[in-house]
Design brief:
Length: 158
């Protein structure tokens, strides 16, 4: 089985994350399930190395892939704070009960920069897992940035 995933490097809060999933199933087995999810990874590097992974969005479509066939489809997931308000341990931008609060934006840093200075590092992973009948699973993880748009870009849309 060959699994490839294509998505943009950067998305804005509230924007759908569109991902193209391509599966080349050159086996005699059926791909019976496809699982898609977005995880927020938070590294606390202030005092010790704590790492937290929280699922902020997921989907399990009813798509299958027949033996010796190919499959391509574009899926769309939108991670929002509204869907995750009851979860504990998420990194957020803003105040907990404020309207403008979002999931935390990805931390951007330069190569060679001391990460301990940043304190908390937030990143996001898009994960795709395919489960094959009586043969196991294949998965891929693709990092991406989740950010606020630049103020000038917000003004252009108003």
């Amino acid at each position: 089985i060959h699994l490839s995933v294509i998505l943009l490097q950067m998305y804005y809060h509230g924007e759908p994350i569109e991902v193209t999933v391509h599966i080349n199933n050159n086996t005699s087995k059926v791909v019976k399930k496809i699982k898609l999810c977005v995880d927020q990874i938070t590294n606390v590097v202030l005092y010790q190395l704590d790492k937290y992974a929280k699922r902020v969005c997921s989907e399990e479509p009813n798509d299958t892939v027949a033996p010796n066939s190919t499959f391509t489809k574009v899926y769309s997931l939108t991670p929002t704070l509204e869907d995750n308000r009851q979860k504990r341990g998420l990194a957020l931008d803003g105040k907990l009960k404020h309207q403008d609060t979002n999931l935390a934006s990805s931390t951007m840093f330069r190569e060679g920069q001391d990460k301990e200075v940043l304190g908390i590092i937030v990143s996001y992973l898009f994960k795709v897992k395919v489960i094959v009948s009586r043969a196991g699973e294949v998965s891929v993880e693709v990092p991406f940035y989740l950010m606020h748009p630049k103020p000038s870009e917000v003004l252009k849309t108003l």
